[in-house]
Amino acid sequence: MEAAAPPASRTRTERLGRIWEEPPGVLGWVTTVDHKRIGILYFFTAIAFFFAGGVEAMLIRTQLIGPNQATLDPATFNEVMTMHGVTMIFFFVIPLSLGAFGNYLLPLMIGARDMAFPRLNAFSYWVYLCAGAFIYVGLFSGNAPSAGWFDYVPLASKTFSPGPGIDFYALGLLFVGISTTAGAINVIVTIFKLRAPGMSLNRMPLFCFAFLAVSFALVFALPALNTALILLELERLLGMHFFAPAFGGYPILWQNLFWIFGHPEVYIIILPAFGIATSIIPTFTRRRMVAFPLVALAEILVAFLGFGVWAHHMFAVGLATATTVYFAAASLVIVIPSGIQLFSWVTTIITGTPRFKTPLLWIVGFIVLFIIGGLSGVMFAAIPFDQQTTDTYFVVAHFHYVIFGAAVFPLLGGMFYWFPKVSGRMYNERWGQASFWLTFVATNITFFPMHLLGLAGMPRRDYTYPAHLGWSGYNLIETLGAYLLGLGLLSVAANLIVSLFRGEPAGEDPWGGDTLEWSTSSPPPEYNYAVIPTVSSPYAMWDREDREADEANLEAGRRTLEAGHETPAGTVVDGEWDEVLEMPSKSAWPPLTALAISAIFAMVILQLWLSAAIATAVLLLVLAAWHGREPEEA
Amino acid sequence: MKALEPLLARVPPSSPASPVLWFAVLGAPAAYATQMGVGYWLAQAQCSPTGGMWGIALGTWAVVVGVPAAAVALAAGATAFWLFRQSGDFKDAPPRGRTAFLGVVGMTVAALFGVLIVMTVCGVLAYDTCNQS
Amino acid sequence: MEAAPRSMEASGPAEVAAAAARRRAQPSGWWGMALLIATEATLFACLIATYYYLRFNASEWPLGGIEPPAVVLPLVFTGGLLAATIPVFGSVAAAKRGAAGRAWWLLTMATAIQATYLGLQIHLFAGDLNTFSPQENAYSSIYFTLLGLHHAHVAVGLALDVWLLWKLARGITNYRLIGLRAVALYWYFVNVAAVAVVLTQLSPSL
After folding, report:
1. Total of domains in chain C
2. Mean pLDDT within A584-610
3. With an 8 Å Cβ cutoff, is B51 touching chain C?
4. Which end of chain B, N or C, is more open, meaning fewer C-beta atoms within 10 Å of its C-beta?
């Protein structure tokens, strides 16, 4: 577009390019506050953790390939199993969804030039990296946590887990929680304030509704986890008592606090996937989403209702019936919003003109796996059934279908969908389709037999099983499926890596996409949009008149905000233009602040209290320095 | 609606800050959240060593809290319907489009949470006990 | 639409006042603080819920024969903290009008009251520590944790006050006004939390 653009437009885009230019080299990446660069940093870091979690999964499956194996001894198995869960949930799926996809795409989708708090965004990434390093230092120093990803007391108490493993878990999660909280706040304020003028709530892409829901859920769920972790560490490190009955404590307190976080967490895991699905389906069916307001609402409802169902993870604990009925009722009703979305997606595909390219294939696979996972999930809402299958492989089957099948498949589909936009190149389509089918079949081979194993009584988290119970055959199939699954995922990675260097140039809009990011070059310029887009629907790219208005505005110098590092801010509900914001550019303070926080956590786990206090004082000074220079001075 | 006319005049439903608009959207979820919060804590109290001596009649309280909650959900849904009827297509520009959109949202949540509130009351009445489930 | 104000260029009292008056929606910084408060409020709610959860599961409360807390001083001190709301509110109102000097003095007054409150509360806290220790039982653990977390929030608020006073001493800008509004919002939250915490703390004696 630039080459054919009239001279005035080219001058403007060049000026904007100079204003928003990113510094070169490693220092440029370390001090960046550009949401696209931060999204890329999150992406590669999250994929590295996905690989680590995948290795842990392969170790688990290898240990379980047959009865009475000795690949991993029981203690090591418990550590690997715990690290697999913790890594996948806290260091892979949430950072990839929120940090990579969310950061990269949200400002583009709403017509903005950056997130609301660019330096906070960078800070979120560096804290995530440091927290991941912290917890893996625990693993590599022989101090991995081993009480499972939900770390129940009394197993996790000092009496039964005397080593520092649980402290790495608790402090590590408190640490990464800072990143996630900051990220969630950033997403909410960005969506509230930085939408292009004209993008009222009813004209906002469904992707944004999903991310708004996710972020609100994180804001209210993470504090419950933080409370539990703080109480646990006060018990373990300072000898206080919250969970031990001998001192008036109560172990179920941990479970309640954990699951008040933990259940919303699983909806947090899946909501970005819903958002990605609702972006891919309209593009590849060339049809607007059926029942748009209901789908938008359903995304918010899943997040909200998710706070009312937590004790369904505790139906076998001995709670009073008068308490559990609340959760059984809500657990049944929460199926309805998911059902609304499913019916809408399927109807949109059937009544549109689908092109089954790789991204849509991943979404169709997601729909199938989500239906299976959702059906096994709603079965748990029936308390008698839950009490038979809790802590068996039936649960493992359910959550892998919904977490791997329903949360990761759209992430993979999203990688293919937005690969052209981010890299400027096309991936290999036939290879993409092949790796989808391999992964989809392998997923079912790996996880479907777990339903049967669970009904046959195999408990979860057991490091081995005896030969005479008839479980060996299914376990063997699952392990072979897992190896195949690893191959499928490696094949996805290989396609994208090779295509990064050898793929065909993609152009701006290879798919005929529905949302605004498809109007920029591939990859987008540093300033995203030379003209703040005119918006009158959630499918802005399909509104020809508005896109022509943008070109006219660029030539005339209207809505170009070229006076500095600028983006518009609007009103929350109706997106009416309120003021022009001056955004910060590169800064070293976010990574330095992350280092200061790392020092605090390191001193705490070493129980060097005075040093921790000094590190806290340093943190306060660093924070003051961060806010020393005001935006208009930048 | 006549009684609300002075309020409606001051902050008309077409305004994004309209209390009528946000009641239509948030009334039913707020009613459910109240029922859930109050009911859960009453059950915690009654079914525990300390609180048991207060003799809380959980079934009675389920009705006392649940019936007004259901009524609020119904009222919110009716308000949402009234707003929806007055506005246009949800694809329009604000205020009509935004009001239509939120009207659909309000009607749907009222139905959903209304059902949930009633289900919960039935559940507590059926199992008005501190037996372990 | 090009006429939308570039509020961040407002660097004198009159410009800041004009920018504040013209704005229709809350600024980003205000929203950021509001959401941070949502997380902290949820944290306090979880801790207070923990207190009552442990209490319902105990046969006596306080546990272990610990004396129920004295009522008068904590309530009086909390009243003092709440009184600091008036100069905080006044400070924001003055800054919105561009009266930087008056805003600074009102904030100083508020900081003095809040610091006195914290000092007195820490004195009571130390006295409690001499009477019974957090490691005795679940009552003492949750008692000191709840109070300690509240005091930590007050301390953070004082640090924010000091930073703001240092900034505002150099004049008022749009950025500093938003900072002041955000910190004021933080104090309103701390006040509400203070009431909830003190009522919970004193509940065995009330």
Report:
1. 1
2. 95
3. yes
4. N
B50–chain A Cβ distance below 8 A for any pair: no
CA closest to B37 among chain C residues: C49
Nearest to A259 by CA among A214, A282, A225: A225
Name the residue with tokens 């998710």: A306
Of A194, A579, A627, Cβ closest to residue C5: A579
- Domain holding C185, by residue range, is 45-54+66-205
Which helix (DSSP H) or strand (DSSP E) does residue A577 occupy? strand A577-582
Name the token pair of A513. 């996409």
Query: Does some domain include residue C59?
Result: no
Q: How far is B60 from chain C (nearest CA, A)?
A: 21
A630 and C176: CB-CB below 8 Å? yes
Question: Does residue C114 form part of some domain?
Answer: yes
Task: Work out the mean pLDDT of chain B and round it to a whole number.
Answer: 88
Q: With CA atoms as reference, report the closest residue to B119 among B30, B35, B56.
A: B35
Percentage of chain B exceeding pLDDT 70: 92
Instruction: List the single range of A176-190, A315-329, C78-92, C112-126 with lowest mean pLDDT.
Output: A315-329
**CATH of residue C188:** 1.20.120.80
Kindly determine whether residue B93 and residue A328, on different chains, have CB atoms separated by under 8 Å: no
Tell me the nearest-neighbour CA distance from B79 into chain A, angstroms.
17
Token pair recorded at residue A617: 């004082």
* Contact between chains at C58 and B45 (C-beta distance less than 8 A): no
Element (H, E) at C60: none
- Interchain proximity A253–C54, CB inside 8 Å: yes
Q: Does B90 touch chain A (CB under 8 A)?
A: yes
**A260 Cβ contact list (under 8 Å, min separation 6):** A221, A224, A307, A310, C46
Distance CA A97, CA A412 (A): 11
Q: Is the pLDDT reported for residue A54 higher than 60? A: yes
CA distance C42 to C48: 10
B45 in C contact zone (CB under 8 Å): yes
Please state the length of chain B: 133
Compare CB distances from C141 to A224, A242, A563 and report the shortest one's residue: A242
Judging contacts by C-beta atoms under 8 Å, the chain A residues touching residue B22 are none
Chain A nearest-CA distance from B123, in A, is 6
Minimum distance, in Å, between the CA of residue B111 and any CA atom of chain A? 11
The ipTM value here is 0.95
CB contact under 8 A, B49 and C59: yes
The identity of residue A58, as a single letter, is M
Contact at CB, A573 and B94, closer than 8 angstroms: yes
Q: Which residues sit opposite A567 in a β-bridge?
A: A581
User: Which of A150, A157, A309, A149 lies closest to A235 in space, CA to CA?
Assistant: A157
Report the distance separating Cα A452 and Cα A392, nearest Å: 10
Return d(Cα A26, Cα A24) in angstroms, integer.
7
A498-536: pLDDT as tens digits: 999 999 999 999 999 999 999 999 999 999 999 999 999
Q: Encoding tokens for residue A373? A: 């996972």
Burial tier of A73 (Cβ tally within 10 Å: 0-12, 13-18, 19+):
exposed
Token pair for C172: 């008022």
- Is B29 at the interface with chain A, CB within 8 A? yes
For chain A, percent of residues with pLDDT exceeding 70: 99
pTM of full prediction above 0.80: yes
- Whether residue B130 and residue A321 make contact (CB cut-off 8 A), yes or no, is yes
Residue C19 lies in a domain: no
Lowest mean pLDDT among A596-610, C14-28, C131-145: C14-28
Decide if C84 is inside a domain: yes
Q: How many angstroms separate the CA atoms of A404 and A481, rounded? A: 14
Distance in angstroms (rounded) separating the CA atoms of residues A457 and A542 = 53
Q: Which tens digit of pLDDT belongs to each residue from A533-578?
A: 999 999 999 999 999 999 999 888 888 888 888 999 999 999 999 9
Whether residue A419 has pLDDT greater than 90 = yes
Is C1–A566 a contact, with Cβ atoms under 8 angstroms apart?
no
